[in-house]
């Protein structure tokens, strides 16, 4: 695998806006607020941005809308939308554009007012004509199918799924920006309202508002900017299906393909990883991804998370912001994996700060376990 772009770009600014409830703000306004914060955090001006990478659930032509709203005329844009994993893919695409000299400062951005606009946990990411006859609820029915199959095939239990939600809440309780805080036990998860068997309401991600953004520049420029650079180490994407009925195996995602390629590009091993940020739209996601990313054998994910293994103080730091389950989930969550990874690598995560965080694995998920994108970010020590 080509490592020519490893360490050649760095994230120099991040920003969020309206995470939780942002009454009165539109998606583009939240995106704009987060973008301006990220640009200011980078020590740059809006006029410095000449590359824009955006995916939203609100705009058919996201870069046209974003650039008009921000009042900029970039040299390069990319509106690739593969669902919630789009932003991890944008890290790779922005790096390629920067390295090719197509732009000098790249903005990756997202915004949604899904909660205050009355949004519910629904998705049009499925080609719904395949399953409409059965009256599924998208996307949760698809994820419940994966959970049911995993339970049948490997003996995974609802209590093990609940461990994921409880761990996420444990991290959220250390994060003042998290939307859902307070006590949550395995018993609480088990007693929560069933939504799509075997997934209960506590197994489902939040529905929130929120905007997020980051700014990348070439590594040599990053060293002259105010913040500690967070370097791009590698990334890869894979997709095997769109509709859940076309998924080859409900217990194996394309993360099993994306991770090895991304890891080879990044030149890292599992032992090198200090932080794992996973797209936890549902509790089954975390279990599937821990397996497919290689942190435990296939079928062992439920047992791997038992006993608080991925909670604060556990053996593997997973979703330290509280994840989509307890921190923020405004429709497409992948942008917030980047923000938390940058804060941890910079040492800016407050009470939840890891003692050592030089390499972060970010894994984005789009559609119904469809688009899988793995990325690695690191500190200067990781180069």
TrEMBL record:
Gene3D superfamilies registered for this protein in UniProt: 3.40.47.10
Listed SUPFAM superfamilies: Thiolase-like
Matching PROSITE patterns: PROKAR_LIPOPROTEIN
Domain Thiolase C-terminal: 237-378
Residues making up the signal peptide according to the UniProt record: none
NCBIfam families: PRK06158.1
Name listed for the protein in its UniProt record: Thiolase
């Amino acid at each position: 695998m080509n490592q020519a772009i490893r360490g050649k770009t760095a994230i120099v600014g991040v920003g969020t806006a309206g995470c939780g409830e942002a009454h009165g703000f539109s998606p583009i306004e939240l995106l704009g607020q987060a973008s301006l914060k990220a640009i200011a955090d980078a020590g740059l001006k809006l006029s410095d941005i000449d590359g824009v990478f955006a995916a939203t659930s609100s705009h058919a032509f996201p870069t046209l809308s974003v650039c008009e709203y921000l009042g900029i005329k970039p040299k390069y844009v990319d509106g690739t939308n593969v669902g919630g994993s789009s932003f991890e893919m944008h890290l790779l695409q922005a790096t390629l554009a920067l390295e090719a000299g197509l732009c000098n400062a790249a903005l990756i951005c997202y915004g949604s007012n899904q909660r205050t606009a009355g949004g519910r946990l629904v998705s049009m990411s499925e080609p719904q004509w395949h399953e409409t006859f059965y009256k599924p609820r998208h996307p949760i029915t698809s994820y419940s199918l994966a959970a049911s199959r995993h339970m049948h095939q490997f003996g995974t239990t609802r209590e093990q799924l609940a461990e994921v939600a409880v761990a996420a809440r444990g991290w959220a309780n250390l994060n003042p920006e998290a939307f859902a805080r307070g006590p949550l036990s395995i018993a609480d998860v088990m007693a929560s309202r069933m939504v799509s068997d075997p997934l209960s309401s506590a197994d489902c991600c939040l529905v929130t508002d929120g905007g997020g953004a980051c700014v990348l520049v070439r590594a040599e420029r990053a060293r002259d900017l105010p913040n500690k650079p967070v370097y791009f180490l590698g990334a890869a994407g894979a997709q095997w299906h769109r509709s859940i009925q076309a998924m080859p195996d409900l217990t194996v995602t394309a993360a099993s393909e994306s991770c090895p390629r991304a890891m080879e590009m990044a030149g890292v091993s599992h032992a090198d990883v200090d932080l794992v940020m996973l797209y936890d739209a549902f509790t089954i996601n975390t279990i599937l991804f821990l397996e497919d990313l290689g942190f435990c054998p296939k079928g062992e994910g439920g047992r791997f998370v038992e006993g608080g293994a991925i909670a604060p103080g556990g053996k593997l730091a997973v979703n330290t912001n509280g994840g989509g389950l307890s921190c923020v989930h405004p429709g497409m969550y992948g942008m917030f994996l980047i923000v938390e990874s940058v804060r941890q690598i910079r040492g800016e995560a407050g009470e939840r700060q890891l003692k050592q965080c030089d390499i972060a694995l970010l894994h984005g998920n789009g559609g119904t376990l469809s688009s899988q994108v793995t990325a690695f970010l690191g500190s200067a020590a990781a180069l």
